[in-house]
Amino acid sequence: MNAKMIVVLAAFLWCAFTTSAQVRTEETRVTVDSLKGDTTYTKSVTISESEDITPRNSMIVINPLKFFLFYNITYIHKFSPAMAGGVGFQVPTLSGLDGFGVSAELRLHPSGKSLRGFYVAPNFSYNHLTSGDVESSPSSVGVLVGWQWFPGDEFAMGLGLGVDYYVGSVSDKSHDFSSYDGTAPLVRFDIGYAW
What is the pLDDT of residues 66-76, one digit of tens each? Predict the structure, then answer.
């Protein structure tokens, strides 16, 4: 299982660093000198790279993959060309489960193009959940590697893979168990609005 995760992560990083938009234009020009009647044919091939430089300083995104467990929304703001930070809020979607959750992350963009492209994001989250007599407050710290892009001027999309370390406590009247900890994979697919 670990070998598959490393291969997927390596492929993801390779795609993140090798993708760019290129445009190839082939052109043939015909010029006729009206005084002499000479005809000149000129062929040229132009290859150019394009980059989205639309300034974006903030994003509001949701992770629809999380909707099976939590409704969620996250606000991310650009602090510098290489760093952005975000805070999020979530509530459970499962019936019989009440509570809330908050999260924070710091996105580090080694390319210096904050809110766009490859990023590494250390993160923290806290949840307080109740179901009948059972109450739990899991917290997590983790790291995520991701890619953020903008298929439209203000439409944001992002993908990320990572791992979280969870720790928490449970209080229930039967006292079956009182604490837990462990790691869990993190998969993120964000869609949202950027400005």
Answer: 999 999 999 99
Distance of alpha carbon 143 from alpha carbon 154, whole angstroms: 26
Per-residue pLDDT band at 173 (split at 50, 70, 90) = low
- The verdict on residue 10 lying in a domain is no
> Is 119 exposed, middle or buried, given 0-12, 13-18 or 19+ CB atoms closer than 10 A?
buried
Task: Classify 15 as helix, strand or coil.
Answer: helix
The number of folded domains in the chain is 1
Distances (CA, A) of 60 to 3, 49, 88, 106, 119: 34, 29, 9, 15, 17
CA distances from 175 to 53, 99, 127, 133, 170 (A): 56, 21, 20, 11, 8
Average pLDDT over residues 177-187: 85
Segment 148-165 mean pLDDT:
95
Has residue 153 been placed in a domain?
Answer: yes
